Amino acid sequence: xxxxxxxxxxxxxxxxxxxxxxxxxxxxxxxxxxxxxxxxxxxxxxxxxxxxxxxxxxxxxxxxxxxxxxxxxxxxxxxxxxxxxxxxxxxxxxxxxxxxxxxxxxxxxxxxxxxxxxxxxxxxxxxxxxxxxxxxxxxxxxxxxxxxxxxxxxxxxxxxxxxxxxxxxxxxxxxxxxxxxxxxxxxxxxxxxxxxxxxxxxxxxxxxxxxxxxxxxxxxxxxxxxxxxxxxxxxxxxxxxxxxxxxxxxxxxxxxxxxxxxxxxxxxxxxxxxxxxxxxxxxxxxxxxxxxxxxxxxxxxxxxxxxxxxxxxxxxxxxxxxxxxxxxxxxxxxxxxxxxxxxxxxxxxxxxxxxxxxxxxxxxxxxxxxxxxxxxxxxxxxxxxxxxxxxxxxxxxxxxxxxxxxxxxxxxxxxxxxxxxxxxxxxxxxxxxxxxxxxxxxxxxxxxxxxxxxxxxxxxxxxxxxxxxxxxxxxxxxxxxxx
Length: 483
Fold this sequence. Notes:
483 residues; alpha/beta; Immunoglobulin-like; 2 domains; six-stranded mixed β-sheet; 10 helices; disordered N terminus
């Protein structure tokens, strides 16, 4: 798992090597260069570019960025398997959606192991997601009917998790987040045959729930979070009432990997039981969701609480990353009527806009290109999974392209709403063609299997390279490479 590196926002570490598409690798010693400085007057020989901010009242180009926004609901059951279809998923992508929600209902395996055929089908669905360039909010359970409370007993459930572990590990990259699931109807841990029904939970039930959660933590790769249905579940299972702190975040620990999802957002004064004591639970979530993913769906038209003013306030304060695009229709339609729907779609998760940049007007072969930037996150949350930033030089005439290599010390999970400063550096190979180069910023996926897939790159709304949009690279400006 990639660990966070805590750095001052104004002085991120400089990468000191570059790699070309061929074998012309250069990793020289660090040398001083002024263009990337973030304060003071513009040094001689440097560009100082202020970018035009986009119109924030319309849907932005970043609406189709990965791991954020409205999701499209899908479900399948082992009794009637409904496989994912790449053409359908690609049509969602074309509409600006990058997430699906996926119920996998293990209704025929309550009392037995999952068959090899179903395990194969689960893996194939992950492959289809990758082919389409989408990710999934994943939940597994045994029933989505309130009249059927059957769920697997503890030993059988643990066996299912053991069976699923290698599949989840292999396909971690296309998993945005995993909801705890498994226990109870809808996997929401409330209506349940074996683990404490309708909130009447014994100490033995709590121990069994804790055992399931521990095994689930082992089954899900350490790079991914798990979301519980209510704050109470996290507080009781961790025997802790205080929210996660900044120093605890981004580690492979239960406090740092367990978030919350709210599947009845704005539905009532307590969001249908999401909050046991809203005066305590709401501030708890305000802090937790700075460092842990938050999402869910609305489930009841409940004006004026479900109207735009309260919705926008709570979505912002609770750092929402995703919501269901199809439920509840009454709530979603009211947002459209009240003209906040597009703001919600653009603001869920992160929304990056460049403010300004400094970089050299020209550089010699073997010299350094140092870039300093300020980027504003106008969204409601930071990216939920690890990814970094890379500098790219591209020579359009010859096609030569050079990337920073090694760690740049950037972790976008720390880019909460607000302004962030970025410094990156790379050396121009001595055999690089002379001429005008694009200076580009690449924000690739943090998973090794997705890192080189352009569809998973993050775009900054006002830096999109419109001449090569499919690459999803961010055009900072141009520099001349000389002798």
